[in-house]
Design brief:
Elements: E1 2-7, E2 13-19, H1 26-29, E3 36-41, E4 54-59, H2 69-82, E5 89-94, H3 96-108, E6 114-119, H4 122-128, E7 133-138, E8 141-148, E9 153-157, H5 166-183, H6 192-209, H7 224-233, H8 240-257, H9 263-275, H10 288-296, E10 305-309, E11 316-321, H11 323-330
Parallel strand pairs: 2-9, 3-4, 3-5, 5-6, 6-9
Antiparallel strand pairs: 1-2, 7-8, 10-11
Length: about 325
């Protein structure tokens, strides 16, 4: 098994364990003072965990609809009824929806309870479960309410991926493509365990420098401004990684429109995404107006349209982009 240590500037450290059979390491991550473990999962996950202490399973609904303040309230009420204390632990077992919800519940219940993540999808293993970002959606946009709450540890058991549906695997590949553009690493040439480990290492390095997204960590949102808009408008019927893939192509085309990169770089983006079998065109049903409104609600958008874009110095956050450029570039991904 591989192990990556996430080291934050605040002094917090925790391990991310990657490999087949990694679940056997779960009890080692639980604090000696914890007497109970609340296991947050979904009925479709079907993965049992053995934390080694008294535990109870709390199921949430499937899909992005479960990422709501209502779900958080219901979970916390259930924790309280069971008698979960501040000294106990919450374990999130599932994909990104579960880790986001379990993490946010842990951050807010008793103003902070330990959380351990057991991500069961490729997307969650390389992204959602690592870094401490938690949150739920509002009708107006994705992840608009949340907090930063670092886990005690993350267990990425590759056995969980054996039965992963093809669309969920493809969603994870969208995030892997993003990491290619962050570093230029040939992730597509690595074995799966090493690919996941390398993606975690890249994210851990960035989060270690910027835990609360006040600078460099925003680069992890490459492709996400349009990606989140696509998800929101499509009622989350389009998988996150596929939406991000379209967002990556769009970001490259926008950077080209703004003369930040040459056309060869745009071609590279399209080729990488094609090699992963990912989409690069907007759904025909989505109007420019709806997409523009949704993109202005992005968390980064403090000064007009804001995107992470490639350029002469690599990726950086670019604010105050004129609407005509944003609108014009939408035509290039239709």
């Amino acid at each position: 098994m591989n192990e990556v240590e996430v080291v934050l500037s605040s002094g917090i450290t925790y391990p991310v364990i990657v490999g087949n059979g990694a679940l056997k390491k779960l009890p080692d991550l639980i604090s000696d003072g914890s007497n109970r473990a609340a296991i947050v999962t979904q009925s479709k996950i079907g993965i049992a965990v053995e934390p080694g202490i008294e535990n109870k399973v709390f199921e949430i609904d499937d899909g992005e609809e479960a990422k709501s303040l209502t779900t958080i309230g219901e979970l916390c009420s259930a924790f309280a009824s069971w008698g979960l204390t501040r000294a106990d632990v919450i374990i999130g077992v599932g994909g990104g929806v579960v880790t986001d919800v379990a993490g946010f519940a842990a951050a807010t219940y008793h103003r902070g309870v330990d959380v351990i993540h057991v991500p069961t999808t490729l997307l969650a293993q390389i992204d959602a479960a690592v870094g401490g970002k938690t949150g739920v959606n509002l009708p107006e946009g994705k992840n608009l309410v949340g907090s930063f709450w670092q886990p005690r540890g993350v267990v990425c058991d590759l056995d969980a991926l054996d039965t992963l549906p093809e669309d969920e695997l493809r969603s994870g590949l969208g995030e892997l493509a993003k990491y290619h553009f962050l570093t230029g690493d040939p992730l597509d040439q690595m074995e799966l365990q090493d690919r996941i480990t390398r993606a975690v290492e890249i994210k851990a390095g960035i989060v270690g420098e910027d835990e609360k997204e006040q600078g460099k960590r925003a680069l992890l949102n490459y492709g996400h401004t349009l990606g989140h808009a696509i998800e929101n408008i499509g009622n989350y019927e389009i998988k996150h990684g596929e939406a991000v893939a379209i967002g990556l192509v769009y970001a490259a085309e926008l950077a080209y429109t703004l003369e930040r990169i040459d056309h060869e770089k745009v071609v590279e983006h399209r080729q990488v995404l094609e090699s992963y079998g990912l989409p690069s065109a907007l759904p025909k049903s989505m109007s420019d107006e709806d997409l523009l409104i949704s993109m202005t609600r992005d968390k980064k958008a403090v000064e007009g349209f804001t995107f992470v874009l490639d350029g002469p110095n690599g990726l950086e956050v670019v604010q105050g982009i004129e609407e005509n450029f944003v609108r014009e570039t939408l035509k290039k991904v239709r």
